[in-house]
Predict the 3D structure of the following.
Amino acid sequence: MNYLKSSLFVLLFFTLNNLYADTLTIMHYNLMYYDKNVYGCTSETNNVDSKDGYPRTIINFVKPDIFTVNELNTSTASSERIKTNVLNINGETKYLRANTSGSYISNMIYYNSEKLVLKSQAEVATSPRITDVYTLYLKTESISTGDTIFLTCFVIHMDGGAVGTDSSSRASSSLKIMNYIKQKNISGNILLLGDLNLYTFKEGAYINLTTPVGANNFRFYDPIDNEGKWSSNLTFSYIHTQSTHTTTNGCFITGGMDDRFDFILSSIDVLNNSKGLKYYSYKAIAQDGKRYNQSLLSPDNKSVPSEVLNALYNMSDHLPVEMKLVYSNNTTSVQSNDYSNNIIYNNPAPEKLRILLNSETESISSVNIYSIIGQRVFSNKYSNNSKEVEISTTDINSKIFIVEVILSNGYRKTFKVLK
């Protein structure tokens, strides 16, 4: 890398990390009947004391700010047990939780109270398990003036099974969620997290979740833009989350890794950074793409430390999924900028990057795109009245690239985009 490229990369990296100095790490995990003995999950095969130790190791590795779960025994004692036995240990006190809800097995959200406040909690009457709706806000530096960033999390566990009745149940649940969003006129930073038990993007449930509704034309997006037939498909092996086992002790589902059941879907505002939170990354933890129809342990898996790998294997037949968001802790300084929030773009951009300028007085003058090592791979100038540009990304080899937008008044905005 020559001096000019190196200097440019350092400048762009410094700019990005100063615009978004804080990270919000979000993890969703199906806990596989935590503190619940049912079917083949007994006190021997699904021992709750052991299931306190495994997530301690996982949590210590991921360090989530928001931890949402499925398949938690529906009792206040079980919800509290995770908080006190798993999260707030060794003198830690920062993790809080929502109120227990549901029946049989439940969802729950745990959150880092040093960064977040739980504003409200509600329910959507989906079947066979309710969907929990949690609205949180960030403890930004500007909160004393009433300026903060909100995030709404829908936590759901859809009906399992590939037969028609199960698929219909998932479709019905998804419609209820979208109708709830429409009726409540919910917008902004929204995530849907859960074991969705989806086999393909052509299922009615996925179509419902990704079809615009209401006055805001709200819909969910797959942040990694990996729509397809996920089940039993080698192409999607790097995002499969179930099953971690090929053999069973009577509790674990077997069959090896061949399904993408666990998701975090997001609103466009998260992808476009129009409401203070910006999508940064997404992954299935410990999924190296070499697990197809194999267990989490075999062939050899070096994607995480061995103690984390073993904890994941022994905890559940699902892998957790992790999303990282970035934000500026001082929202006032971001909002006082006349143009930063007026430049909207899609992220990820697997085929086309679309940039929209919401300004009556200025226009897009030019756009430059650089690889992550600072090499310029695209540059173009635009007419004085350009408010929207579309750029093909199919010839950009980098999975991550850096975009520089220059406005007619000389204002520059730099941001990172995932292809």
About this structure: The helical segments are 3-19, 50-62, 76-87, 164-184, 204-209, 268-272, 306-315, 331-335. The CA atoms of residues 154 and 192 lie 5 Å apart. Residues 3-16+336-418 form a domain with the Immunoglobulin-like fold (CATH 2.60.40.3080).
